[in-house]
Amino acid sequence: MDKIVDVIFSIAFLDSVIRVTTPILFATMAILVSDRAGVLNIGVEGTMLVSALAGVIGSAFTQNAWLGLLIAILTGMAYSGILAVCHLKLGTDVFLSAIALNLMASGLTVFVLYLLTGDKGVSTKLPSKVIPNVHIPVIKDIPVLGDILSGQNALTYIAIITLILLSIFLYKTRTGTYIRAAGELPQAVETAGVSVKKIRMLALLLSGAIAGMGGAFMSMGYLSMFTKDMVAGRGFIALAAEAMGRGLPGLSLLSSLLFGFADALASSLQIFNIPSQLTRLVPYLLTIVALTIYAAGEQKKRKKL
């Protein structure tokens, strides 16, 4: 037990918590913005996977990591755009459509990868680029804190900036107010002469763009290649993180860190010869426990009203 505590309070572990929290935070923000508009995007898992491959292909063909990131973002918007068209234009159920897109993403990415490389599992044959790490001046020289906060991948800092900008956008701009109103009181939006469908379409496209950055981090930051099904349920974990964060950016950051901690712990426990099949259950068990506690708390509040 003492060895596990030593691992948890080590610099390497805290560094890894930030690293593994990054894709969960991107996915949580993607779900948050769609949920606030009243059209929960559970297709983030598939969107991230498709964007992860698009980023690798884009950076390989342009030989530029930032253009690869841009292509991943545009791909995320296009994939979420399919969900928006299916639900808002064609009237399909948003959850069933999102599930279909999640299932399609796994096969589609393998198919495209096979067409380009002849390989069905990894993209090592593609000369893709990676998003660089960033060392922050001044902070990097601070003992302990500098080792944890500085030297992270650029997309980790972009995730924090995106969270701040998203908070400002939702609470300080007119369009952000319309998005929140579309989820809370859509009749008021229609009364103001604004189309709820257009607002929700915008929210889904924004959700796709943020999910695209999360996918790019997986294949161009977390790893330096694309691998089959590499998102590994982080889009679904983000659903729990967003629910626990009650749709608020600040609380969603804290809940994302909690799941990032569980993910990092699962990896660290493997050095104690605990079977990986068992340690990999940690984040998902935490998801179930956290949602159970959250649901119990919400039920208790409703009874008091």
UniProtKB/TrEMBL annotation:
**CDD domains according to UniProt:** TM_PBP1_transp_TpRbsC_like (cd06580)
* Top-rank lineage group of the source organism: Bacteria
- Pfam family name, one: BPD_transp_2
Q: TM spans, by residue?
A: 12-32, 39-61, 67-88, 95-116, 154-171, 202-223, 278-297
Subcellular locations according to the entry: Cell membrane
What does the record say about its membrane topology? Answer: Multi-pass membrane protein
Q: Which UniProt keywords apply?
A: Cell membrane, Membrane, Transmembrane, Transmembrane helix
Named from the GO MF annotations, one term is: transmembrane transporter activity
GO cellular component, alphabetical, reads: plasma membrane
Protein name per UniProt: ABC transporter permease
Q: Which organism is it from?
A: Aminipila terrae
